[in-house]
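Example with several molecule types.
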Amino acid sequence: MKEETSNNSRRKFLKSFGISVGAAGVVSSFSLIGAAKAAAKKPAEMVNLLTQDGQLVQVDKNQLRPTVNEPLDELQKRGREGIPGKSFVMVIDLSKCRNARKCMSACQNHHQLRADQHHINVLQMQDADHTAPYFMPKPCQHCDNPPCTKVCPVDATFKRQDGIVLIDNERCIGCRFCIAACPYSARIFQWTEPKDAEKYKDLTYNIEANVPQKKGTVSKCLFSADRLREDKLPSCVSACPNGVYYFGDRNEDAVTNGTSGETVRFSKLIEDNAGYTLMEELGTKPRVYYLPPKNRAFEFNGDLLNEENLH
Amino acid sequence: MKNTIKNIAALFLIFIFSGSLANAQGWTVPNSAKKKQNPYEATSKNVSTGKKIYNLHCKSCHGDPTIANMLPLAPVAPTDLGAQNFLVQSDGEIYYKVNKGQGAMPTFEKTISDEDKWMVIAFLRSFDKNKKVKQQVAEVKNPEVTDVKLELNVNEANKTLLAKLSGVTKKGKRVGLQGIEMSFLVKRSFGYLDVSGEDPYTNEKGDVKVQFPADLPGDREGQVNMLVKVTDDDFYGKLEEARVVTLGVPTDPVNPLDERAMWGTRANAPIWIIVTFVGGVLAIWSVIFLVLFQMIKLPKLAKSKD
Ligand code: SF4
Ligand code: SF4
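Resulting structure tokens for the full complex:
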């Protein structure tokens, strides 16, 4: 409360003073911002908002701030601990993927990534000369024996009790050891100022979504850990139009399809379809399972990035 | 007079023509495919199965039949599959289109079984105004009832669930309702797992018995959240019963962080790492101290030599 009043009085002061100073041509950056703030405040622009109890209220636009639900400490603490009793797994049915790439754009929206940065990427695969090509979405495998967390010198990347591997961008020093250690190339590095850095600079850092992204640190797929807390499926899983993804809890032996909403037994799905994990010979014990691209629902129709093939 | 009739006729023709054009949208269906007939009868069982499959695979784009609440996709919005101008097609035509797909409509050749596809077609036919008469409507006639009740009995010893659906007739007698499909659902993190089995229809007493899977995990005590409901709200409105039952296999979730592993927390580092590290530190410091100690001794040694 106290802060607000002092802010207000500063604004008032600037309003009466800053403008005249500005007019006098002495434009320091400070007074410029102050004047701009004051000017923006003057014709109080009102917006209509719906409150939680269903009332329509008018609010001064200048008072709007992005909601911050939890303080940073709380977010960091619960982000490290994970959700007790859960053991998240993903199943990707390769026979249904037709390169729609909706998972990728949903992911990029959620984690504030540019179009060329991927937490999940749809790859064009061909295992050998005479085998059939297919599309393969590849997120972080959330390994149960993750090489990436072992090499981190500052304990910035870690595994939680629900199986998810996360990165704390507040701790990460950008050494990129983990990128070198990951056999699945699941990690990306923020070489430049991330997308919309200016817009989100006041947002409290959320370790479970890696937002806002930080320049000079590493980022990767998080199984949308923030959404899982609200019992929502990961962004990519719900965005797929072709029923490729199943996601669920191995402790419950159930996975739910993101497209149809159908819930099936995890063990049965894997058993019936000969599910496998990527590069199991490395002993990384991935949590992402693949169902082979057998009996494909969609023909493989050529080049990955050919516009015509993006359905 | 004649002219107006002619005009109307012409308009009508144009209307039909453009209608069929818009409908066809370049979907050419081979004649042989058109002739296919639905091998499954339009029994109420098949229709309700079809409805389930429809809700799973088709509803997300096409919306509810006859309601026209489809997704507004561009350039071609999905068709309302309950509309009469869609249902003028033969079973074979619909079957062919479902199989092949076109544009935004995916192919379902391999994602849905043949049987399921015909069930969906049976379900869609139930909206067909022209063919409705031919259809066998509900083979089982339940009397008109009020105050429909769903009771659930759980037998924990042999893991069975018994649901009873009953209603009060006009004469004031409570009777069982027959041939109604029930869903037995187990709550999981992101949805409901259907454990109804093959034939979850009430018998003549209004009872339906379901065997709970022997190996489905529950929580630590084996408890699961169960939801039993009449599958189709259309019959008697929303009827459901939610209950916590102890039918699951008691499962203790393992915390992978309890394991001593290199990727684990600091508190749970592997013993050999702790031993090597502490040993190494001790060894290095003792060497340093040893050297320092010897160096302190040096002047003394020199003195004693003097
Ligand atoms: S896929 Fe790579 S980044 Fe993900 S847990 Fe495994 S090693 Fe780490
Ligand atoms: S780049 Fe960051 S997360 Fe990766 S090993 Fe280095 S400090 Fe750890």
